[in-house]
């Protein structure tokens, strides 16, 4: 479960996120939807502990900064960061060691296979395309077997096969009771998977819909906000 209360993030004088609050139950896929600059990435990065902010973020009831919360949490950034001199497989092993994970080599093989990285496993970080880096980043996050996972614009830059596989993965996470938060401006990519949508504009959530609420509404009506 993920709970966000009174989240405020300022960059100097710019208030990027203005008193945002929401919660997501276990096994729920939440979407942060909104135009460029609405504050989606800032919320995701704040929850992930990459930004200083005011407010309260809880993961499975624990403060997000708590080491035990970090153990059950994973984050897939919009722009993946990799170690230039580690291979794809070494990245997986790095995560395994850093989190002291009980993961077999076969499980690593299976994840690499799923994202068509098996034949790239010996490539160095600085030899990978952005899409490949994204796939490695997704594999590393899944290795943790998180209870809460955040994806920042996960579909951008992925090839169709990887998008299909990622959708399958999100469906599986959901049925395993994992809480998933996705920031996107491509609602059509996650349409069949989401449960709750938070429509954002200028740093605030201006609308919260369940899938039932959104039935019959055009995507652009949700995307551009609520009028009247
Ligand atoms: P996009 O879809 O373009 O990534 P977003 O909804 O994720 O947009 P954010 O990246 O969270 O939006 O940006 C929210 C606001 O904060 C914008 O006005 C942006 O210009 C500003 N902002 C983001 N990062 C910084 C920063 N490092 N310094 C100053 N302002 C920033």
From TrEMBL:
Q: Does the keyword Iron apply?
A: no
| UniProtKB keywords | ATP-binding, Nucleotide-binding, Transport
Q: Which Pfam families does the UniProt entry name for this protein?
A: ABC_tran (PF00005)
List the SUPFAM superfamilies: P-loop containing nucleoside triphosphate hydrolases (SSF52540)
Keyword match ATP-binding: yes
Q: Fetch the Gene3D superfamilies from UniProt.
A: P-loop containing nucleotide triphosphate hydrolases (3.40.50.300)
Give the ABC transporter domain ranges.
2-227
Q: Which domain of life is it from?
A: Bacteria
Q: Cross-referenced InterPro entries, in alphabetical order?
A: AAA+_ATPase (IPR003593), ABC_transporter-like_ATP-bd (IPR003439), ABC_transporter-like_CS (IPR017871), ABC_Transporter_VariousFunc (IPR051782), P-loop_NTPase (IPR027417)
Q: Which GO terms describe its molecular function?
A: ATP binding; ATP hydrolysis activity
* Name of protein: ABC-2 type transport system ATP-binding protein
